[in-house]
């Protein structure tokens, strides 16, 4: 390195080299030549040479030069590795010969190498980042994807002598993108509904053919059928059902897998049971609780916490194409480490969705079971009305609701009819419905008027609950806002008294087919308080139809309540052979697909009237002599009815009740006997004090009469009226009467 002066006078560093010449010293010819170059220019030249050398030998980007006939004239070391041969063995070959069957997959460009290169040579426009899919000669068993760029080559005079190709294998990046896209798709498509079978089918469909040629999903029987966790134990204890299966080619499935056919008429017809032999990948996965990779089969357990809900089996086919379409994973017959991790992640997400569906199934099953137990299964025959009823639970999406109904026998051959609706869905709603139904039954047995019963029920709902465990407002939220309709029908007077708390009014169908909806004061929903409840009393002709229902029957997304009420009126006004047939017609017309977003309850009651010959009633003065007269009237009526066997007990009952009315009540008195399914005896007075059972001391002169009465009859009680009270008793008929 020397410091030299340029001809223009400035100094610069130069590098010199003294090189011997061939034939030096012959004939006085110079023996050496001195070469001098500026240091900056030399460094640039050396950098270019190093760059060219690196591109040729060390660059991971494959470089190749093709002449104008598209025959390869040069390639670097990376390209040689892709071909799997030294340059001398494929020099002069065309690009389509080296990658036969490959194609460009970037939209908007020709599919073949020839077409793209000719386009670059003809136009001089470079083409960047085209994606080429093909099978390299160095890896004939796997499909690869390259990012390719092309630009035209010209000499110093501007003559075109070829095209340069640079390519970079992006197969790993593409696989990572596909895996991420598959995870996103799995998150979007599985778990769309809370159903175990649907979730299993979704995981099978979303992973074929993007991840495997065939996918099978087996879930424990108890999880599918009842939503329970399977018992932990040996693999043999796991009873599996095939609930999901999808394949691009039936031959991709393992033909050696044993399947036991389901029994006819069994749910296993749709979900066949499966049994895996000892030592199979599935058996080993169940035994270990972990995933098992065996050649082209990958088995991943559906794990949730410490439990295994089932298995997912991924199967790959060795064939690169199915129906002319290459599989996304290529012809590979096994799974790499990244794909094993992806399968584990897919199964984990599926397991969470299946567990959510399992929990929903279990709660829904429990809710339905509780609701069925709380609703009346069999309505005992009534003298007052003929009864028919229907109940439809809500759909699987919404969950079990809290609609309910009841038929309550009351004193004096009367009957209480009630329907109600609890806000919300699920197990809490069903339990709340049971509490309300029990409360209504208890209040009804006290012979409360409908408005008084709803007032007591409203007070009960409005009371804060006693804390049980962690604080929760779930019960208060469900009970507050519940609705109820309660009606009492008396077959003797044909009078019906009803009241409602935020519920829809009943429909009344008269014997001539005319349908009306009584103008019954609405009253606030239960638990809100602040406003009184009002009763409405109407007289119903014999054969009238009273329809009590919940809003799920008449309200839907595609129409409002008024349209539903009009449709219900048209159905009820149509003559029908029986009440059951009328129930079926109403449900079919208003709930055609048998599933709604809310529960549906329908209670139909056709009124009767007790024949006058079965009722005897007398008005008596409140005098001491009335007791004897009452005994004579009662025994005479029993003789006319052929019930002399009950005369002794009835005389004692009448004597005690009339004596108490004369002594503690006020006149006039009314004595009534009703011959129904039992013998009913009623004594009414104008007093409002109720007698009570008590145990008399040995030296007491009185107080034993009511105790004796209670031993002689089946039931007794007190019914209050605006004019006073009525003490009533029921006696069973002698055995001969039942015949």
Question: Please, could you describe this protein's structure?
Answer:
The chain is of the alpha+beta class. A hairpin with a 2-residue loop joins β16 and β17 (325-326).
Beta strand %: 25-35%
Return residue spans where pLDDT drops below 50 for at least 5 consecutive residues. 258-268, 319-331, 466-475
Strand order of the largest sheet: 5-4-9-8-7-6
The level of helicity is: 25-40%
Approximate shape:
rod-shaped
Structural class: alpha+beta
Distance between the termini: 137 Å
Main beta sheet, described? 6 strands, antiparallel
- The number of distinct helices, counting runs of at least 4 residues, comes to 20
Radius of gyration: 47 Å
- Secondary structure tally: strands: 32
- Mean pLDDT over all positions: 83
Topology:
Blueprint (H helix, E strand, L loop, with lengths): L1 E4 L5 E10 L11 E7 H19 L4 E5 L5 E4 L1 H7 L3 H4 L4 H4 L4 E2 L8 H11 L3 E8 L9 E11 L5 E10 L1 H19 L6 H11 L7 E7 H6 L13 E8 L25 E2 L6 H8 L3 E3 L2 E8 L2 E9 L5 E2 L2 E2 L10 H38 L10 E8 L11 E6 L5 E7 L5 H19 L4 H13 L11 H6 L3 E8 L4 E7 L5 E3 L5 E2 L19 E4 L5 E5 L1 H4 L6 H12 L6 H12 L9 E8 L7 E6 L5 H16 L5 H18 L4 E7 L3 E7 L19 H8 L2 E7 L2 E8 L3 H4 L1
Keywords: Hydrolase
InterPro entries: Bact_Sigma-Reg, GAF-like_dom_sf, HATPase_C_sf, HATPase_dom, PAS-like_dom_sf, PAS_4, PPM-type-like_dom_sf, PPM-type_phosphatase-like_dom
Pfam family, one: PAS_4
């Amino acid at each position: 390195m020397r410091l030299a002066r340029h001809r223009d006078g400035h100094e610069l560093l130069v590098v010199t080299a003294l090189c011997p010449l061939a034939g030096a010293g012959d004939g006085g010819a110079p023996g050496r030549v001195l070469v001098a170059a500026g240091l900056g220019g030399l460094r640039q030249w050396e950098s270019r040479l190093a760059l060219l050398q690196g591109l040729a030998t060390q660059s991971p980007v494959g470089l190749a030069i093709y002449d104008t006939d598209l025959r390869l004239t040069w390639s670097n070391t990376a390209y040689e590795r892709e071909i799997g041969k030294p340059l001398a063995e494929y020099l002069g070959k065309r690009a389509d010969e080296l990658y036969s069957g490959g194609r460009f997959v970037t939209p908007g460009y020709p599919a073949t190498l020839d077409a793209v290169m000719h386009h670059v040579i003809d136009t001089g426009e470079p083409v960047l980042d085209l994606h080429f899919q093909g099978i390299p000669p160095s890896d004939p068993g796997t499909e690869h994807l390259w990012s390719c760029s092309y630009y035209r080559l010209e000499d110093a005079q501007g003559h075109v002598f070829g095209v340069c190709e640079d390519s970079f294998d992006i197969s790993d990046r593409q696989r990572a993108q596909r895996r991420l896209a598959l995870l996103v798709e799995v998150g979007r498509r599985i778990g769309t509904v809370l159903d175990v079978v649907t979730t299993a089918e979704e995981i099978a469909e979303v992973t074929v053919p993007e991840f495997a040629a065939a996918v099978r999903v087996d879930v424990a029987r108890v999880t599918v059928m009842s939503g329970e966790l399977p018992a932990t134990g040996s693999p043999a204890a796991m009873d599996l059902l095939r609930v999901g299966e999808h394949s691009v080619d039936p031959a991709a499935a393992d033909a050696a897998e044993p399947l036991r056919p389901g029994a006819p008429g069994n749910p296993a017809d749709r979900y066949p049971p499966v049994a895996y032999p000892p030592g199979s990948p599935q058996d080993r996965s169940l035994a270990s609780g972990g995933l098992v990779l065996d050649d082209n089969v990958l088995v991943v357990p559906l794990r949730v916490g410490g439990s295994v809900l089932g298995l997912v089996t991924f199967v790959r086919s060795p064939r690169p194409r199915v129906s002319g379409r290459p599989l996304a994973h290529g012809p590979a017959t096994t799974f790499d480490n990244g794909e094993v991790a992806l399968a584990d992640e897919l199964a984990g997400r599926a397991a969470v969705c299946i567990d959510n569906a399992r929990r929903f199934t279990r709660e829904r099953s429990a809710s339905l079971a509780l609701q069925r137990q709380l609703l009346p299964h069999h309505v005992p025959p009534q003298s007052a009305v003929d009864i028919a009823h229907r109940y439809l639970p809500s759909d699987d999406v919404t969950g079990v609701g809290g609609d309910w109904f009841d038929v309550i026998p009351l004193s004096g051959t009367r009957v209480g009819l009630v329907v109600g609706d609890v806000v919300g869905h699920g197990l809490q709603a069903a339990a709340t419905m049971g509490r309300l139904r029990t409360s209504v039954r208890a209040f009804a047995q006290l012979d409360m008027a409908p408005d008084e019963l709803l007032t007591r029920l409203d007070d009960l709902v409005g009371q804060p609950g006693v804390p049980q465990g962690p604080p929760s407002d779930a019960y208060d939220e469900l009970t507050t806002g519940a609705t109820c309709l309660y009606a009492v029908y008396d077959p003797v007077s044909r009078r019906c008294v009803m009241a409602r708390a935020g519920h829809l009014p009943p429909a009344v169908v008269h014997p001539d087919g005319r349908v009306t909806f009584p103008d019954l004061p609405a009253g606030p929903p239960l638990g809100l308080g602040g406003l009184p409840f009002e009763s409405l009393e109407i007289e119903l002709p014999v054969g009238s139809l009273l329809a009590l229902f919940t809003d799920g029957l008449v309200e839907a997304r595609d129409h409002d309540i008024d349209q539903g009420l009009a449709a219900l009126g048209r159905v009820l006004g149509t003559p029908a052979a029986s009440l059951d047939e009328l129930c079926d017609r109403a449900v079919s017309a208003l709930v055609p697909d048998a599933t709604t977003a809310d529960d549906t309850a329908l209670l139909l009651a056709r009124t009767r009237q007790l024949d006058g010959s079965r009722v005897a009633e007398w008005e008596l003065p409140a005098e001491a002599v009335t007791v004897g007269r009452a005994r004579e009237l009662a025994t005479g009526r029993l003789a006319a009815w052929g019930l002399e066997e009950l005369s002794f007990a009835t005389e004692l009952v009448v004597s005690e009740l009339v004596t108490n009315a004369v002594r503690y009540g006020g006149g006039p008195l009314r004595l009534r006997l009703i011959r129904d399914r039992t013998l009913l005896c009623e004594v009414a007075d104008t007093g409002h004090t109720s007698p009570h059972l008590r145990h008399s001391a040995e030296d007491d002169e009185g107080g034993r009469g009511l105790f004796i009465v209670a031993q002689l009859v089946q039931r007794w009680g007190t019914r209050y009226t605006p004019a006073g009270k009525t003490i009533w008793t029921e006696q069973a008929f002698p055995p001969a009467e039942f015949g």
